[in-house]
Write a structure and sequence with these properties.
277 residues; six-stranded mixed beta sheet; 2 domains; four-stranded antiparallel beta sheet; Rossmann fold; alpha/beta; 11 helices
């Protein structure tokens, strides 16, 4: 559905931000791009709908190479919607309704179709009744929902979210992740950038680890977090559940060989097995 092939990119000052990045996302997957702050996650994401243009390499979306002429960008930005880390970078209209309507109107849709999409999108993110509110009067979680609604109204095939839980309290973060899980369950392809290692095993089928602009590991959460030395070399850590079992393994010699549970449900099953033995 989306493929990055040997993407390299340098900033105007010559700093190389991405180095031969390869990434492959299948239709219907929820994929995490995992890395510390400054690793290159946001820079890579801005290549996915042509906001940045690679120095070398290419982005392929639904079998077609992304081009940077105006007509092509319009087509591809309808397929790939990006939700920025800070919703204040995305919300600019006087009201929520106008903000969510901006994308569909830009696509040349009629007022009638636009209004339908706005209503559907706001209902989907549980923000009905906020149509006339000013975005800057909303909470952080509400702003994030409106930003997501603005992308949903474009009806993209792929949604890309940069640190979707950043700045949110635990309840707000949980609500956003539940929404993304539901959208993915309905068939939307979702790519999330994050440095939250506890989030990744719960929602992602595939993980890419990025460090200093390079993909240094990819695979299932089990495969990625099983490489403990690599995770720590990327200035990340194990999920808390796995770290707990690592401590217990070293103390009580469970002989797990680094095969630690990543979620509460996995930990519960393993605890029962260890107890029975």
């Amino acid at each position: 559905m989306l493929k990055a092939e040997n993407i390299s990119y340098s900033y105007d000052d010559g700093t190389q931000a991405l180095k031969n990045v390869n990434l492959d996302v299948e239709k219907g997957e929820m994929v995490s791009l995992l890395g510390k702050n400054g690793a290159g996650k946001s820079t890579l994401f801005l290549h996915f709908n042509g906001i940045y243009k690679a120095d070398s390499g290419k982005i392929i979306i639904d079998g077609e190479e992304l081009k940077h002429d105006k007509k092509s960008l319009m087509k591809f930005r309808q397929k790939v919607g990006i939700v920025f880390q800070n919703p204040d970078d995305q919300l600019f209209a006087p009201t929520v309704e106008e903000d969510v309507a901006f994308g569909p109107l830009n696509l040349g849709l009629s007022q009638e179709e636009t209004q339908k999409r706005v209503a559907d999108a706001l209902k989907r993110v549980d923000m009905e009744g906020f149509e006339r509110k000013a975005p800057h009067h909303l909470s952080g979680g509400q702003k994030k929902r409106v930003a997501i609604a603005g992308i949903l109204a474009m009806q993209p095939q792929i949604m890309v979210l940069d640190e979707p839980t950043s700045g949110l309290d635990p309840k707000g973060a949980s609500d956003i992740l539940k929404l993304l899980y539901e959208l993915n369950d309905e068939g939307m392809t979702i790519i999330i950038s994050t440095h939250d290692v506890d989030l990744v095993p719960i929602y992602s089928s595939k993980v890419y680890v990025i460090s200093s602009g390079e993909i240094i590991k990819s695979g299932t959460p089990k495969e990625v977090f099983g490489d403990i030395d690599l995770i720590r070399s990327a200035n990340l850590r194990l999920p808390r559940v796995a770290h707990l079992f690592e401590i217990l393994d070293k103390r009580d010699n469970f002989d797990l060989d680094g095969d630690y549970p990543l979620t509460i449900s996995e930990a519960r099953r393993l605890a029962v097995e260890l107890h029975n033995h």
